[in-house]
Amino acid sequence: MKSVTVMAFLLFFTINLNAQKNQSELAKLKSASPDVVAVHDVELLPGQDAKAFETFVLNEIKPIYDKMKGQSFSLFKGDRGNRTNLYAFILSFNSIEDRDRIYTPSGEMVGDFGDKAVWEKLKTMAKVFYSHTDYVKVKK
C-alpha cells in the first residue's frame, strides 16, 4: 500500500511539474511575440546567386540590426503565393516605442548601421528598401 501511495505521489508530482513547465514555456512565447513588425520586400538582381545573397545577409546585415536593443532581424524567402522565391527582411520590435526610437517618425534612423561598404555591397546584390510596411499587432 505504501508503494502505491508513493507511486501516486510521484505521478502527481511529475504531471504537476510538466504542467508548470508548459505554462512557463507558453508565457515565454507570449512575451516574445512582437507588437510591431516591419516587412521590407527584397528582390535579387539578375545574375545574383541566391545562396551567396542569403549568406551575406545572415552574416553581415543581420548582426547590424540585431545589436540594436528592441529589434531583431529575420530573412524570409517566399515559399508560395505572389512572392514565391522572393525575399523579405522582417524586423520585429518589442513595442511601437522601440520602433520609433530606432526609426523616428520624422524618418531619421538612430543607431549604428555599420560600415557603408556593407550596404553598398547589398545594393549590388538585390533591390532593397523600395517597398515596406510596418504592421502593428491588433489586440483585444
UniProtKB/TrEMBL annotation:
Protein name per the record: Antibiotic biosynthesis monooxygenase
Keyword set, alphabetical order: Signal
Residues in the signal sequence: 1-19
